[in-house]
Amino acid sequence: MLRFLTAGESHGPELAAVIEGVPAGFEIDLAAVNQDLARRQKGYGRGGRMLIEKDEVRPVSGIRFGKSIGSPITFIIENRDFTNWTKRMSVKPADWEESRVVTRPRPGHADLAGVLKYNLEDIRDVLERASARETTARVAIGGLAKQLLKPFGISVLGYVVSIGATEAKTRADIISLEELARITEASQVRVADPEAERKIIAEIDACKETGDTLGGIVEVVAAGLPVGLGSHVQWDRKLDARLAHALMSLQATKGVEFGIGFTAGRVRGSALHDEIGYDEKERRFTRHSNNSGGTEGGMTTGEPLRLRVAFKPLSTLMQPLRSVDTKTKREAVGTIERSDVCAIPAAAVIAEAVVAFVLADAFLEKFGGDSRTEIERNWRGYLEQVRAY
Ligand code: EPS
After folding, report:
1. Ligand 1, atom 20: closest residue by C-alpha
2. Is 197 in the pocket of ligand 1 (CB under 6 A)?
3. Rounded to whole angstroms, how far apart are CA atoms 100 and 11?
4. Distance from residue 326's CA to the centre of ligand 1 (Å)
């Protein structure tokens, strides 16, 4: 239903995103999209690049007078850093310089597999696109997706659970997503736990000192979902599978888990499954727990969606690991590129965006129509059908 493509190199002139399948009649708040882009730029542990960039979308199609018109929406985002890279990222053959060619692949990066696969001499041809700079476009797309969900009472939030070995309290006592959003937004590392925040900042400083990097785990929660998004009938329609696919496509992702995740493989069924109840007043089925993370049979249960994503530490180390020069085949160390020590606070915003996109896609699939009015009619009718069941 909803699909997108992104394009652009990290140090090229611009990034682009084309989003197809946005129905007509949705108010598009560009300031909210830009706010998400600003959230992605924040976070303790970022390198010098974020001081150069000020990410903002330039919409060039699909929106008129503040509303979607049903045609593809295109966002352009400028790479301000390009002015420092005009020669190195030039499209002109005459600008090629042998001394600029990158030949020392970084362990953990797309560098080596990329040059071998595409038969390229310069690792830069691979690293520019493999770069997590691309996630800027995905956050803009997610920002748009959130605006398709918001009128139907669906909200999505990403925050940090752990960085390195330090785990933050997840604050199960905070029940409203708005409150959790406010608290994690105020944190330099997007956690809801000041004690953990202090430890994490100290750990990031220690890693910076030794030229090392840090990974972490983020959690995404979505509230307000109706029962029945996704489907049990076919492998590629299962919502959790679609979410895992989208999340695993993020740079540096190593794992995704739903609800209690891998722990599900270590406990008995009686301790795991979420027992069912019924609220007579509200006329709705309820659950006594949410260990599933809000999906069963590849469909939403109507409980909040809760998932976690593990990201490995960044592969650009200022104290580089052993590698081999692809030209000389002699032992060398990985290339040093300017980079971040830790990008996990940004990863939380990115994972949130990716989840919002998949949910918007599943929502449109269920209630599909060409206009907001049509979707709203289908949505109301379905909610009444479920209540009357
Ligand atoms: C990245 C390397 C760094 C990061 C970049 C991702 O860029 P640079 O080499 O220009 O300093 O800052 O992330 C972003 C630019 C961004 O917007 O998130 C990498 O190699 O993946």
Report:
1. 131
2. no
3. 14
4. 23
Q: What are the pLDDT digits (tens) for 308-323?
A: 999 999 999 999 999 9
Atom of ligand 1 nearest to the CA of 46: 12
For the chain, the domains span 3-387
Quote the strand ranges of 21-115, DSSP E. 57-61, 63-64, 67-68, 73-78
Whether residue 84 is predicted with pLDDT greater than 80 in this model: the reply is: yes
Place 1 in a pLDDT band, splitting at 50, 70 and 90: confident
Distant-in-sequence, close-in-space partners of 19: CB < 8 Å, separation ≥ 6? 2, 3, 4, 62, 72, 73, 74, 75, 141, 144
- Name residues whose C-beta falls within 8 Å of residue 162's C-beta, 6 or more positions apart in sequence: 168, 216, 217
Query: Using CA atoms, how far apart are residues 388 and 30, in angstroms rounded to an integer?
Result: 38
Pocket test for ligand 1, best of 6, 133, 337 (most atoms within 8 A of CB): 133
Q: Is the CB of 136 under 6 A from ligand 1?
A: yes
Measured from the CA of 136, which atom of ligand 1 is nearest? Answer: 17
* Cα(60) to centroid(ligand 1), Å: 25
387 Cβ contact list (under 8 Å, min separation 6):
283, 284
Record the tokens describing residue 342, joined without a space: 């830790």
What are the residues whose beta carbons fall under 8 Å from the beta carbon of 41, sequence distance 6 or more? 50, 53, 54, 55, 346
**Residue range 111-129, pLDDT digits in tens:** 999 999 999 999 999 999 9
How high is the pLDDT of residue 338? Answer: 86
**pLDDT higher than 90, residue 140:** yes
Closest CA to 33 of 70, 2, 74: 74
Rounded to an integer, the average pLDDT of 250-256 is: 98
Ligand 1 pocket mutation pick from 49, 50, 102 by most atoms within 8 angstroms of CB: 49
Q: Which own/partner contact pairs does 331-335 have at CB distance under 8 Å and 24+ positions apart?
A: 332/104, 333/104, 334/104, 334/105, 334/106, 334/107, 334/109, 334/111, 335/102, 335/104, 335/105, 335/106, 335/111, 335/123
Whether 332 has a pLDDT exceeding 80, the answer reads: yes
Q: Thinking of the domain 3-387, which architecture would CATH place it in? A: 4-Layer Sandwich (3.60)
Tokens of 192: 């809801």
The pLDDT tens digits for 226-235 are 999 999 999 9
Q: Ligand 1 centre from 168 Cα, in Å?
A: 26
